[in-house]
Amino acid sequence: AFYLCWLAPDGDLHVTRELYVKGRALSVLAKEIKALCGEQKPSIIIADPSMWNKSPLVEHAKQGNSMAEVMIREGVNIIPANNDRPVGWSRTREWLRVYEREVNGKLERRAQLRVWSTCVNLIRTLPNQMHDKHKPEDVDTEGEDHAVDAIRYLTMHLPAPVALVRTGKSRAKDKNFDEEIQWRIAAGLIIPEDLGKHEERSS
Known about the structure:
Radius of gyration: 18 Å
Structural class: alpha/beta
Number of helices: 7
Strand content: 15-25%
Order of helices and strands: EEHEHHEHEEEHHH
Distance between the termini: 20 Å
Mean pLDDT: 76
Shape: globular
Low-confidence stretches: 164-203
Strand order of the largest sheet: 1-2-7
């Protein structure tokens, strides 16, 4: 599972596009990822750390290449995710938590993780996740968890969600808000040219 995401100026994390396939050659998968992103080239692409393993059971590893090396060679510059599962699920739950804030003079309650209707498999599988019977702080890996794992990798790479209050005043005059956004751009967590776009299409 691959998801194209962007962090909006108000602190919301938008999950906008989905690639949910299996059985692809890595070269084909790399092309599909690049096609999905189009002109919206991600600042970072976070991947399962196991892709850096060179297991003899993996065809690419027999040739001296890990799956990660193949993807990078194909132009998809991935970095390994932090795979601390309990902490990752805790972070994800924070993004799913409902916050209360003022938006354009009105009180609004919503989570800061905003999944678009285009991400049908994430929407389908997220509510079905079950706790592991032996590790209640973890998710049962026997279930269909590919989509939620991808989101977990992302939330582990981001700072904790911050519910920013938007008022009628100019954002440019809000010094604290501006510093927060500049920090995130510098850290490569948003694509600057996309700020402020697509907000009305989120679900």
